């Protein structure tokens, strides 16, 4: 199991942070699309590192077209010398329509076409296959030499897709090379919903999970002192509550009989009661969504919880953590 980390919160410090994380032995660096452009940060990280994998976790697919995403991914694959991973996700309707002013339709079928269209474009650039992709949502039939990048030795990047629901997860298994487990998940949901959906998708593609990568950002709640642990518990509960307030994620709660918590959290979120939301997450919920304990126990707990199904792991931390504590956690994960 490879150990990755999320970076990029400080836009001005990306190169320094990327170099430091590679020096600390991380296997992969992920950049999310939140306050900054993730592809620019990936480029900065490529300049500062030589061996670590670099990718987006995630870039918002429906804010772009397959052609624009294919171009960015293809160039970064070349610039990184094959280290770049194109991680994408759909986002929810409100953000796509109201923030990005882009069209919305059934997300899972649209995402399948999005990935298929990118692969058709890459086949044109890399292998000279005439471009002729015509789907319900996307149509790409024009490509001239002037607008075609030259083939390169690294080829197109692997595509990882994020999802929560069964339909999008199945698309990941069918069309992508890897899958991002959402932080708001549990082992029961993985076993009963996620993995079966991935297997169905792989079967459609005539493949198995043997050549597929599952990435998991996993909540950890830890501290070296009682005060640090208490702050960690508060921070993690607030983040769990934030995700649980999203109606689309109610299925995860219902898997454990907590479905009625979701509308209560939604009401509080609309009222701006962000601190109060965490109070609705009890210790049973906390321990189901997160591993909780002293630093030296976190690594073995994560390996026991996810080691048999996850190939890449990222510690998902939503509170200030002592670097010494994080070092102990990293050593424990590596065993």
Structure description:
- With 335 residues, the chain is of the alpha/beta class.
- It is built from 14 helices and twelve strands.
- Strand 1 (2-6), helix 1 (14-23) and strand 2 form a beta-alpha-beta unit.
- The radius of gyration is 20 Å and the shape is globular.
Please give the structural blueprint.
Blueprint: E1 2-6, H1 14-23, E2 28-31, H2 38-48, E3 53-56, E4 59-60, H3 66-79, E5 84-89, H4 93-99, H5 107-127, E6 133-134, E7 139-140, E8 159-163, H6 166-175, E9 178-181, H7 187-204, E10 213-221, H8 226-244, H9 250-254, H10 261-270, H11 274-277, H12 283-289, E11 290-292, H13 295-306, E12 312-316, H14 323-334
Parallel strand pairs: 1-2, 1-12, 2-3, 3-5, 4-5, 5-8, 8-9, 9-10, 10-11, 10-12
Antiparallel strand pairs: 6-7
Query: Order of helices and strands, N to C?
Result: EHEHEEHEHHEEEHEHEHHHHHEHEH
Class by helix and strand content? alpha/beta
Q: Which geometry do the CA atoms define?
A: globular
Largest sheet: 8 strands, parallel, barrel
Q: Report the count of strand segments.
A: 12
The side-by-side strand order for the widest beta sheet comes to: 1-2-3-5-8-9-10-12
Rg of Cα set: 20 Å
Number of helices: 14
N-to-C CA distance: 10 Å
């Amino acid at each position: 199991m490879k150990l990755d980390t999320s970076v990029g919160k400080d836009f001005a410090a990306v190169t320094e942070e990327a170099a430091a994380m590679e020096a600390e032995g991380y296997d992969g660096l992920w950049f999310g699309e939140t306050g900054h452009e993730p592809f620019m940060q990936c480029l900065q990280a490529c300049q500062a590192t030589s061996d670590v994998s670099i990718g987006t976790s995630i870039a918002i697919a429906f804010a772009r077209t397959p052609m624009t995403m294919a171009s960015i991914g293809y160039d970064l694959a070349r610039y990184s010398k094959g280290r770049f991973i194109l991680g994408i996700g759909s986002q929810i309707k409100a953000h796509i329509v109201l923030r990005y002013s882009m069209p919305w339709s059934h997300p899972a079928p649209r995402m399948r076409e999005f990935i298929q269209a990118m692969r058709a474009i890459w086949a044109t650039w890399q292998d000279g296959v005439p471009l002729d992709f015509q789907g319900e949502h996307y149509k790409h039939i024009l490509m001239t030499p002037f607008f075609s990048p030259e083939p390169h030795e690294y080829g197109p990047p692997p595509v990882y897709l994020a999802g929560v629901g069964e339909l999008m997860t199945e698309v990941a298994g069918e069309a992508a090379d890897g899958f991002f487990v959402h932080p708001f998940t549990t082992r029961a949901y993985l076993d009963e919903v996620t993995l079966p959906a991935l297997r169905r998708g792989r079967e459609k593609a005539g493949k198995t999970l043997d050549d597929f990568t599952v990435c998991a950002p996993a909540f950890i709640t830890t501290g070296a002192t009682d005060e640090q642990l208490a702050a960690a518990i508060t921070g993690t509960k607030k983040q769990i509550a934030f995700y649980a307030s999203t109606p689309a994620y109610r299925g995860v709660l219902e898997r454990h009989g907590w479905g009625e918590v979701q509308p209560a959290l939604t009401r509080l979120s609309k009222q701006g009661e962000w601190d109060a939301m965490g109070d609705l997450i009890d210790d049973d919920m906390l321990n189901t969504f997160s591993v909780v304990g002293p630093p030296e126990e976190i690594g073995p707990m994560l390996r026991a919880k996810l080691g048999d199904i996850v190939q890449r792991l990222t510690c998902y931390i939503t509170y200030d953590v002592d670097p010494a504590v994080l070092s102990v956690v990293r050593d424990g994960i590596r065993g």
